[in-house]
Structures are given as structure tokens and as C-alpha cells.
Amino acid sequence: MSAITYTAERRQDPYPSRLPEERWLPRQDKTVWSQWCRDAPLTAQQTEHFDRDGFIVLRDLFLDEEVKALIQESAALRGGERELEEGIVITEPGSDEVRTIFKLPEYSPLFNRLASDRRVVDIASYLLGDDVYIHQSRLNYKSGFIGKEFYWHSDFETWHAEDGMPRMRALSASLFLTDNDALNGPLMLMSGSHRHFIACVGETPEDNYKSSLKKQEVGMPSYEALAKLAKEPGIQTATGKAGTLVLFDGNTMHGSNGNITPFARSNAFFVFNAVSNRLEEPFGAKKPRPEFLGFRGEPKPMEKASGKLA
Predict the structure, then answer these.
(1) What are the structural domains, with CATH classification, of the chain?
(2) Each residue's pLDDT tens digit, 95-134
């Protein structure tokens, strides 16, 4: 059975993708799942911003000493000071330079502590209106001079088609581990793009993740769709010093340019999914991606940790 046929047979799928023709579908899920109140971990204005634009940038959540410890830990992971399992380290196309390391909590007690930190988890739970768990975690590193771009994409399109995430009830938290500025390939986001689901063209190849983690070519919107999404209100860059936290909806269209400056760019990513939104069988692929790309066990609410990271 082809992936396209398989998708067509899932009649309850609200977000079919990997189709013969590109389609625009309206979002059928909330962006903010909780009602704001004075005890919320975000202000009313911040909540409105996330709901409207699909992302928010938060500064000064972490102490300088905490950020310094995380930077040192990320360097140890990249530098081979930790024994990592085969397959979770992705290198740049045509280079041995590290591009991505997955499963951060499993290989780093410090990043495990960060993943459960109340300052982040409370916000994720509030926005998603549910207890949360880690769907995926990774360290993204864009080295100076040769760090390649991450092309425009919606994470949810892949999570839905290849992992089996049923609904848009997940978000990414990206913590800057270097200064991210306008020059070294910062995260770019299309404001308001989360309100539309772009059903992409093409059948999912076997083991598509092996090539897509280096350069994504399936599940990509057309140039015409991207140009339309970018018109109003436009493309925003997420910049700030190390320690800045960016939260963005799983369906927000985003990407980043290559880095030809001498200054590396590094971010830690944690994808929080609602416990009620556990994975099913893939909606647009014959089999799910490996566990390090999408947790397939019984999701358990995260135990929140308070106090300093280190």
C-alpha cells in the first residue's frame, strides 16, 4: 500500500498531507488551550502574542551561571566527551561537523534537568492546556563558515505524517546556547502561518528521515505557498543573547539561513506534546520514524523541577 493510498483511507485525518497536489487546510485546533488568569505563567499580552503570531520570545528566564553550565555541557556533547548511541548524531551535508544531537535528556543529566524545569514546563502546559511530555529533544549546532540552512517547514507536518501525531497540540522550546543575531543564521518564523496547514506534495520515501535530517526535501511547501504565507504580517527573526528562550507552535512555518560568519549558533530544542495527544500510526508514511525522533511509549506527565539548574 502506498503512503498516499494509506493517507486517503484515514478518513478521520483532519490534516492529510504527502498528496498528489498541494492543498491549504484551515487549522482545526486551538493555539492557546488555557484561559488566561492572573496566576498564568505568561502575561495576557504574551498569551495574545503567541496566539496571534504562533511564537513568543522570552528573555532572562535563566541565570548567567545556568546558561554557562549548559553551554559547557553542549560543548562536551559535541566534542565527543559523552558516549552516544549510533544514529543520534547528525553531521552537516558533505562534512563531519556536528549538525544535530538527539535525545539530550538521556545523555545529559543537566539537559534532563532543563527539560523538566518548571520555568519552561509550566508555560508549555499552560499553552497546551494539558500535562506534557517530551516528544523529541535535540541540540542544533550551526558552525561558523559552513553551517547549512534549515529550509522552511512546519514541524507538525512531519510529526503528523511520519510520527503519527494526531492534532496540533505541541510546541517547541528553543533555548539559545550562543548569541543569535541577524548575521549567524537565526531562527526565522512566519507570523500567523500556524493558522494554515499546508498539505504538501509527494509520497514519503522509505526511511526518509535518514536524508531529511541533513536536508529536507519531502514535506516542503511550494514557493507560491511560502510567498503567500510570508506576505502578512511577514517574516520575523528570533534573536537575543545566550539564554533567550523561543517558544513556537508546532505548525508555525520556520527556517534559518546558512551561517557564513565566524560565529557559531547553537540552540537546545525540546518538543513538548500534550499527554492527550499521544502518537498513533503515521498518517503519511508506511512506518514511524525511530524512537529518538518521536517518543512512542505511554506518555507520562513530566515531574516539574524547581530551583537553579546547576
Answers:
(1) 3-277 (2.60.120.620)
(2) 888 889 999 999 999 999 999 999 999 999 999 999 999 9
